[in-house]
Design a protein that fits this description.
Blueprint: E1 7-8, E2 16-20, E3 23-29, E4 35-41, E5 51-54, E6 61-62, E7 65-71, E8 78-84, E9 110-111, H1 117-120, E10 132-134, E11 158-161, H2 163-167, H3 180-185, H4 187-193, E12 197-200, E13 204-206, H5 213-217, E14 228-234, H6 247-260, E15 264-269, H7 286-289, H8 320-335, E16 341-344, H9 363-370, E17 378-381, E18 401-403, H10 405-415, H11 422-429, H12 433-436, E19 446-448, H13 458-461, H14 497-516, E20 520-524, H15 553-556, H16 558-572, E21 596-599, E22 616-621, E23 631-636, E24 642-645, E25 652-659, E26 681-684, E27 688-696, H17 697-701
Parallel strand pairs: 11-12, 11-20, 12-15, 15-16, 16-17, 17-18, 18-19, 19-20
Antiparallel strand pairs: 1-7, 2-3, 3-7, 4-5, 4-8, 6-7, 8-10, 9-10, 13-14, 21-22, 22-23, 23-27, 24-26, 25-27
Helix pairs in contact: 8-9, 10-11, 14-16
Pfam family, one: ISOA1-3_C
Domain Glycosyl hydrolase family 13 catalytic: 160-571
GO molecular function: amylo-alpha-1,6-glucosidase activity; isoamylase activity
Length: 721
Amino acid sequence: MHKKYTLRTGSPYPHGAQVSEEGVNFSISSRHATQVELLLFAHHDSPQPFQSILLDKSKHHTFFSWHVFVENLPAGTWYGWRIDGPSLTRESGLRFDKEKLLVDPWARAVSNKIWQRGAACLPGDNTHCAMRAAAVDESEYDWEDDTPLAIRSEKAIIYELHVGGFTRHPSAKVKHPGTFAGLIEKIPYLQQLGITHVELLPVMAFDEQDVPPHTAELNLHNYWGYSTHSFFSPHPGYCVSPQQASHIREFRDLVKALHKAGIGIIMDVVFNHTSEAGAEGPVINFKGITGNSFYLTDKFDKRIFHDYTGCGNTVNANHPLVSNFIISCLEYWVREMHVDGFRFDLASALARGEDGHVMQDPPVVWGIELSQQLAKTKLIAEAWDASGLYQVGNFPGYRWGEWNGMYRDAIRRFLRGDHGVANEVATRICGSSDLYQHQGRLPISGINFITCHDGFTLNDLFSYNHKHNAANGESNRDGCNNNLSYNCGAEGPTANAAIKALRHKQAKNAFAILLMSHGVPMLLAGDEFLHSQQGNNNCYCQDNELSWLNWADSKQNADILRFVQQMIQLRKRHASLMRRNFLTGAILEHRGIADITWHGLEPDQPPDWNNSDNRFLAYTLAGINAEDADLHVVMNMSDDKLNLHLPSIKDRTWCLAVDTSLKAPHDIIPTELQKPLKKPLYSIDSHSVVVFENIENHLLSNASPSFFSKLTHMKLFDLNE
């Protein structure tokens, strides 16, 4: 038996549950509500409340807000709301159900322990199997002077990972698999790899039960997390002790630990839709609280949801109240959780107005860009939606970066040997000036990637010509059909040594091109040791060993892992790869050579840009400063071996740095172990990338005899060192 707590009027702001020494203030905004009830629960899985508080409209209602202060209520108390209002009509679109238990949209911690999605899809009482929120005291945390990092975008190397899948496999050997705490244990690995930011697939609380019926019958659930319901709460499934409402503390521990390691954190956020789906979907919070304002609905029948996301609903992001909710949420994660940036899923849906049409200057997008609290926060748009709106190179605003889907497609086609793409590849690896320069934007506007969570892994990109998604329960209908992949001669695993060698070389080619490109590179976690999903290009529902990273692969494919680590180091030591401005071909006064020089089959011979059969690119990239090394890069995706002369640069000698056709450790050579070429001539294997760095001759003449002898003693990257 719980005691009954006494009440005060309370305050309409802030929304949510605000804990103080005197108790907890509860506030929720519902414009059309006629009756509001607060239910208090002893535990996260209590089937019934220990106290129900019916709010008096004359005392507990201010404008749109309903509020009450519960005296002496301790932090950690679980709660939910019931709200009644006008009936559903085509004119109103309101979906009030006075018996439905609703989770607070402003909740800082939620529990899904007893959640049953099916019950929330039906009218009537679901208190015994609904989500609950907890009143959390956020003030008691020692940040140890931590603040969001300020790593310049041109120096960023992003690593996209899934919090659960990164450590859930037994081979991860962490104390708390699949959690924020488990990821903390892997920070030394991230440091060794050399990335600057992790980009986490959705970690705001999402509905794991949101999958199609046939998928649910296979006992599969929503794994990726693109089904958010509580935008202020970390996902309980990634917490060690969510029943104790530890969500905020555990996420903060992760952020603080990453920052101590010099690694920034970017959150993948899903403001384009919610887990409430369409008209037949569950009532979790917004449907039963805000009426029709939170979603785009039909002009003539507001019971009908507009779906530009492929998920049943579209958030009405440019409604004033919804826009304020989104921006306030983002500011909260920066101010209170110290995150460094956001990647917006299907961000183009945020550009749609209340009628569904595309707005030239959507208020929410500009509000995010102009927010003072978000001024130093990285903003990245997936600049398309599921209804054909494609805004890569044209997303509203100037500060936003964009997932460069055009880069991905061009590089994939080039890698598989397509004709007629070399010209576009040249533009893409130089920062996609055709997309961004005319707007006054920068190379950092493009987030370059070849693979991401959605689609083939890098291993599978060179192992499968077709998707193999039968395990998802949708008869292989789901997932993209246009993968631009190349299986190198066999579909799936093979014992053929030549095919396996080509696949390894292609993986190295992909990493070399990506990390030599201007713009911001993004790697998919596990690609660096050839993680495979067995040809499944849509593992959104595979919370199992198909998706989990098997860390044994990092030993088996240690040569690829070492190659990626060394490519990252190569990028970091060349400021010329991290330019903030676009290349122009202009002569640099301090060097007397152009910032970039393109070559044909002979040095300083102009390329044949009009030759559609060309599958070869060669260029020289000048160092930013006088003492910087220059780079000469050759990408040969043709079927022929080429013998090429290197350009002559006064007082400089070329050294081989990268040759993807060679076996480790000779495929990539650290600076201190590089050996000068005796002649400026090199044979480039087919389907290979070769990179040369040069050295000033006076430094070369002073090198000791042992300078080059270390080459034979190189060893593979050791995870345990």
